[in-house]
Amino acid sequence: MTRESAAAVPAVLPQAIVRGPRFRLWELALWLAALLSWFVLPRQAPMLNEMAILALFAVSLDLILGYAGIVSLGHAAFFGTGAYVAALFAKHVMPDPLAGLAVAAAAAALLGLATSVLVLRGSDLTRLMVTLGIALILYELANRFDNITGGADGLQGVVMAPLFGRFAFDMGGRVAYLYTLTVLFLLFLIARRIVHSPFGFGLRAIRDNPRRASAIGIASNVRVAAVYTLAATYAGIAGALLAQTTGFASLDVYDFHRSADVLLVLVIGGVGWLYGGLIGAVLFTLMHDVLAGITPQYWQFWIGLLLVILVLVGRERISRAAGRLLPARRHASNGNPHP
Q1: Can you give the pTM of this predicted structure?
Q2: How confident is the model over 184-234, as pLDDT tens digits?
Q3: Contacting residues for 24 by C-beta, under 8 A, at least 6 apart
Q4: How is the chain split into domains, by residue range?
Q5: Would 87 disulfide with which of 14, 249, 297, 321, CB 3.0-4.6 Å?
Q6: Which residues, 6+ apart, have CB-to-CB distance to 203 below 8 Å?
């Protein structure tokens, strides 16, 4: 590295950090459209609420997959933990939604911190098996202690108190959707700021070349454990939102299809930029709803076919088209910070 290039690095990096978090016009339009959907599509509030929960779940996985390079087949472990903790807290302790959300987030964070030690060891294949094993263990524990979780019948009778003591959860799901959308937006802002901070740039360095990152003084294990715990917290909050807004928690929240679906969401929307989780969640939910209405028994076949085409044929073309519309997405393909 020459003296001129070495002197240029400190000057460029702070500008990128400051410039990155600024909202672009298309980002504002996207969030405005999400807010307007609450007014324009009142009858679709339950489906929109499902989209928002899935989007938050996808953002949580993108934090470790897209920015730290950790592949997980058991991310549902944190989702299910948040769902059960929120449901049990509301049923036996306090029905306040915000208190339950905080307790569920804390429980998922503790689980993420405890299991991050296992994830730090081994290769990608080892991580796949470890994360899958953790989810399977929790699934069987929830099934075994059916006197607490309800087992195969699920945990029923979960009734939530009105938000702030004023806004009761209605049958149409409008309060639930606005509640979920607000939580999604606030957590997305935090995640967006984190991935554009020096911590986020360090994660990218670890993802691209762990040995070089360690050589230049980046504490790889500490950062990976921290982002894994953060991702677990986000997933736990997503699960808690599902339990709170539906009033129900079952073994389904720990099922493998939860982890698989969120991976499909990121494949559709794109990995390594947080908006991929949002866009992928919308497209996946719409495809599920439309295809299940046309062929209830074979909707997974059509989604699978679409994914094959997307990966083998259309990914590069779609990326180039998206690059023309979203300049920051084009830069991301060259290894620069995402929007």
Answers
A1: 0.86
A2: 999 999 999 999 999 999 999 988 888 888 888 888 889 999 999 999 999
A3: 328, 339
A4: 42-259+271-279
A5: 249
A6: 67, 68, 195, 223, 224, 227
Determine the angle formed by the axes of helices 256-269 and 76-92, rounding to 10 degrees.
120
Written as six digits, the tokens of 5 are 């290039």
Give the pair of three-digit tokens for residue 101. Answer: 């959300």
Q: Return d(Cα 311, Cα 303) in angstroms, integer.
A: 12
User: 155 - beta bridge partners?
Assistant: 249
CA distance 279 to 288: 14
Q: Which amino acid is at 297?
A: Q
